[in-house]
Design goal:
Receptor-associated Protein; 17 helices; about 400 residues; three-stranded antiparallel β-sheet; mainly alpha
């Protein structure tokens, strides 16, 4: 059995660390609970050397389409009346990913040994989110697993569709920027240095901007390693920065205040949040627990802060709309008022579902408009860049030809 290094907290808030030999992290949590401690984190000894690399590199995840396919099959097979063990046996044969296959088989074994489905799913938080597990648990308790899987499949499809449209809007500008960068590098490192030799042989008097571009080309030729390594270092530094709390907050502040992007950021985060809340509340998850789970769905720091604060206020007896009102500046106009209507009519989950559908459509339209607006801007930028390079070459050539004439 593995030897886990653990970090735990006592009832009075003191942090304690140590080692425990156990089957898995859940067993560690049980042992510590018996000692009056709450587990915060476990680390296997062989993971310590990998932590630095994991800080920079993203974890290998199961893709969204694979998850959607799996949950749709869960819904269909549950509806047909198959046993849970048989369902996971079938799911494991359908997937080609080794990691997912082994996870599904392990879940099947855990259920076979007496664990509930929700308990077995908690062993794989990278595959099954807290929202997923909470809804499954409610489905088990209420006997509505089929409806829960249907809701989860729909939610995952909507989220994937929304993310795909936002990413799609960014593809064209990225291609233009990369093309412009590639053309600029070729001109500065290959074309201009050769022309400089030609101009120098004729003792031509070059304009200042041509001298600057040629000088930059010569510098990049001599220091090409700097130009190769610098972007890589900058990317790693950026990834490291956004993994810190302060860095993520700075990035989220820029995005939520940036022209053109601000409305897209607000509506997309609002859509993810409201869709999650709607699904959880409709499944019977208490409002406070729904808020705590939903705060982990949204990516923006300010939305997460708003939901966490709202959860604390709702615990004290305040209604959801009142708890969110102080954050009205980050929610699109009318959102909190519609939530208030839902609370007054007792149809909060229905109103939230309609709001989620509305904002998902709004984000889809906004992404298309943003892409359409960026295209001409990028073409103008590309044209200006090409014009500068062309003019810096053509003008001195005309001057030289005039001198020869």
């Amino acid at each position: 059995m593995p030897n886990y290094f653990y970090t735990a907290k006592s009832v009075d808030g003191q942090t304690k660390t140590g080692n425990i030999i156990a089957e898995d992290s859940h067993k560690v949590a049980q042992i510590l609970k018996e000692e009056g401690l709450i587990l915060v984190k476990t680390v296997l000894p062989d993971e310590n050397g990998k932590n630095f690399l994991k800080f920079f590199l993203p974890k290998a995840k199961i893709s969204a389409p694979e998850k959607i396919f799996m949950v749709r099959n869960l819904w269909i097979m549950t509806a047909t009346g198959l046993s849970t063990i048989k369902i996971f046996d079938v799911l494991s044969t359908q997937t080609k990913k080794k990691k997912l296959k082994s996870s599904l088989l392990d879940i099947k074994e855990k259920i076979n040994k007496g664990q509930t489905l929700s308990e077995a799913l908690t062993s794989y938080p990278n595959i099954f989110s807290e929202l997923f597990v909470s809804m499954v648990k409610i489905g088990e308790e209420s006997g509505t697993l089929e409806e829960v899987f249907k809701t989860l499949a729909l939610q995952m499809e909507k989220e994937h569709e929304l993310k795909s449209k936002i990413q799609g809007a960014m593809i064209y500008p990225s291609i233009i920027l990369l093309t412009m960068l590639g053309v600029g590098i070729i001109i500065m490192t290959v074309v201009l240095p050769r022309l400089d030799t030609f101009f120098s042989s004729l003792s031509a008097d070059l304009p200042l901007y041509t001298k600057f571009i040629i000088g930059l080309g010569k510098f990049s030729q001599k220091n090409w390693m700097l130009f190769v390594i610098s972007p890589v270092v900058l990317v790693f530094a950026f990834m490291a920065m956004i993994k810190t709390k302060k860095g993520k907050r700075v990035l989220d502040t820029i995005l939520i205040k940036m022209p053109f992007f601000s409305l897209l950021v607000k509506e997309s985060n609002c859509a993810f949040l409201i869709r999650a809340l709607s699904s959880l509340i409709a499944s019977g998850v208490p409002i406070v627990k729904s808020l705590e789970i939903s705060s982990k769905i949204v990516g923006n720091f300010y939305f997460r802060q708003a939901v966490d604060t709202a959860a604390e206020k709702v615990k004290k007896g305040e209604n959801l709309s009142g708890a969110l009102r102080e954050y009205q500046n980050i929610f699109p106009f009318g959102t909190i008022e519609m939530i208030e209507v839902g609370e007054e009519t007792g149809k909060t989950s229905v109103i939230l579902k309609k709001l989620a559908e509305f904002y998902e459509q709004e984000v889809s339209d906004a992404a298309e408009k943003l892409s359409a607006a960026i295209e001409p801007i990028m073409i103008v930028i590309l044209g200006v860049a090409v014009g500068i390079f062309a003019f810096s070459i053509i003008e001195p050539m005309y001057s030289v030809l005039g001198t020869i004439g």
